[in-house]
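Notes to self, Proline dehydrogenase:
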Amino acid sequence: MMLLRSLFISTISSHRFLLLPSLSVLQYLTKPHTSKLLNVDKNPIIHGILKRTFYNQFCAGETGAETRHCVRTLKDLGFRGVILTYARETVFDHKTQSAHGLLGAHQEKTSAAAEETDTCIEEWKNGTLETAALVEEGDFLALKLTGAGPRVTTAFAAGHLAPEQMLSALRTIAGDCKARGVRIIVDAESQHFQAGINATTLQLMREFNKITPTSSSPAPAAVVYNTYQAYLKSTPAVVASHMIAAHQEGFTLGLKLVRGAYILSDDRRLICDTKADTDAAYNSISRGVLKRELGEFGGLYGKHAFPATDLFIASHNRESVLGAYRLHRERVDEGLPTVRVAFGQLHGMSDEVSFGLLAEGEADVVKREEEKEKRLGVKSNGVTLGSSRQARLDRVGAGGPDVFKCTTWGSMSECIAYLTRRAVENRDAVLRTKDEYNALKAEAWQRLFRRA
Ligand SMILES: Cc1cc2nc3c(=O)[nH]c(=O)nc-3n(C[C@H](O)[C@H](O)[C@H](O)COP(=O)(O)OP(=O)(O)OC[C@H]3O[C@@H](n4cnc5c(N)ncnc54)[C@H](O)[C@@H]3O)c2cc1C
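result:
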């Protein structure tokens, strides 16, 4: 079933004449509709079609039970853990200068609500705590801050910190996660809100990633990560300003690096002129952090020491992902300075990159063990220990790269903007999806043929 669904999505994604109309329908459904006929939660036919196709391919579930089941399935595939997001968000369309994503009812509720307590923030907090309860130690909880409604988005649009009620909700969530060994990633969203999101996340990093004078060496792992979109021309300067803050104020910078997913709705002038420029920006930040030498930070001639940083490479681009993994491995092998790094791909996308990374990591672990055995001439009662590949892996445990799958849960209407972005990405990656499509087609034929 999963294979057939993947093949179906891949068939649409790799044929423009199928993808463009599907994309238009998704974009149309993203807009708030008063008619029940076009409401993705209320019309059972639209809901059923979307659920069995796009939704199940890219999202975890509409309920806690469905989501838990999906998280377990992903972990059983060999990933270190999951990144789980509650889908509710607000997207700002630069062309129409309008925000959409949160339904009108929520906005009305807020204006009618008492000044002090904002019900949207309260609902978002409860939904996020519910999401946090679905993940376990070692997993990540990802937050879309604009999901907390108009009071928060108004502050963000003005470049301000989130309002006090939201900061208090975030402190409760971060405190709960820290106590359970769950890390938090704050997602990057429409650039219209990004200055406020950056300021708010920086504040959380100051509070939750603090390096105390008694902290052990190396610096404690980041509990909170901010997301940096390499496609924004302003990103290198934002990264530099956050590195200065981490260095001067003594906290670990949690740096999740993405290319950026809002190209269709953001102001194009703020985004790198070409894909090659975005690629260069992404790879130079990633390599610089892994070498602890970026701009004015680190290296022999850096103006500032390189701050404690934990890197998260979030990408489906094989060159960026494998390049970062190999550079990190080389530096570890040669005893050169580097940072802790983890990798993530989205659920339902680029499984070949995720599994390729796991396979390369496993091969490295086995190779290292063989070299160690040769060096030490390890023997036990005359028998060389762990002669088989599996025995070696069992002995050293999972020593390969930390690979996570990132998935989203929520009702169909909450997830529809997210689904639309995934469809846009597939349109932009027609070449990549062609490869995936051919591989899936071959696999489906092989299974059918074997059964016959
Ligand atoms: C685990 C994970 C978490 C993510 N979280 C976020 C998040 O919080 N916020 C967010 O915005 N995105 C997020 N994304 C999506 C991400 O930003 C990218 O849209 C997506 O991963 C595709 O980029 P890529 O690195 O996989 O590589 P590719 O497929 O090689 O690159 C595609 C990307 O290149 C850029 N691009 C394409 N054409 C052009 C052009 N003409 N000019 C300039 N740039 C161009 C766009 O950013 C496009 O998405 C996440 C992705 C992953 C895997």
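- Residues 103-114 have pLDDT under 50 and may be disordered.
- The pocket of flavin-adenine dinucleotide is lined by residues 187-188, 227, 229, 231, 258-263, 271-272, 274-275, 278, 314-317, 320, 344-346, 406, 425, 428-429 (CB under 6 Å).
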